[in-house]
Design brief:
Two copies of one chain form a homodimer. Chain A has 133 residues and is mainly alpha-helical. Chain A is built from six helices and two strands.
DNA sequence: ATAAAACCTATTGACACAGTAGGTAAATAG
DNA sequence: CTATTTACCTACTGTGTCAATAGGTTTTAT
């Protein structure tokens, strides 16, 4: 189950993609439009900047803006950045240590199969696919 | 990310499906074969019995056994019973209250689309598909 | 009566989630 | 140069879930 962090990050990027022009947009505006806590969004925005998905600018007329076009954002990269890993089971996550039962595991191939379907889905979905509706 | 409860339940049912005969099998045996805590497995077994996926018998020569054939078990029903819901987002879970942003939500249809793919996958997968390997 | 097993209630430590609080640094406008 | 606006930073907190563990009671076969 994806957490609010991933979902809010998605909403934030969609919100920015919908704004015309190329100016930096204050978090205050985004939070108000989305009805979310500005304080909590700060944490999310910070991680998005750190991950290169948003650009931030301090000071007056500062705020956030996209670093690329909506077509270039996949949903997968956004939620993976926020959630850490979208693997269905711990043993398939990046940081997982080798499972000793790996060779005899009856379910591993099923999880791998699903993981691939999941990644195909979310990395195939683009922000541009979501804003026209 | 699926928890150990769902994964252990799956292993337990696979383990039972692999045993010959129709006798009740003590949890002690299953836990030893699987290298899992018997105490923790008790909680899982109890929920599986409660959900009708296992039959339990107390007393000497008691234990657990399947209530149907391996072909009749879908992976989906097992993990859904254990995890509560396999919905990708909270608003799609059974118990979810109506979201006020539902009508304008840009991501809802994407989550629904994924949820359907997920259910098709896990409810289509049968225990019998996993034991031959 | 005894042993083996499920069944039951309660508790625990660790951790993540979903924020909140309060400040510092940077940039612009007047 | 000062005030304002904004991002950026560290820390804290309450709530809940996860993954067990502990210690019993009941049921059943021998």
């Amino acid at each position: 189950m994806f957490s609010t962090k991933g979902r809010y990050a998605l909403r934030m990027i969609i919100d920015l993609a919908e704004q015309p022009g190329d100016e930096f947009i204050p978090l205050k505006d985004i939070a108000e439009r989305q009805g979310l806590s500005k304080k909590y969004m700060e944490i999310i925005a910070k991680e998005l900047v750190h991950g290169g998905l948003l650009a931030g600018a301090s000071g007056k007329h500062g705020g956030y803006k996209l670093t690329k076009t909506p077509e270039e954002y996949s949903v997968g990269e956004i939620i993976e950045l926020m959630e850490g890993s979208i693997a269905p089971v711990a043993c398939l996550a990046d940081n997982a240590e080798d499972c000793p039962r790996k060779a005899s595991c009856k379910t591993l191939s099923m999880w791998e199969e699903f993981y691939e379907i999941e990644r195909d889905f979310f990395f195939g979905k683009r922000i541009s696919d979501l804003i026209r509706s």
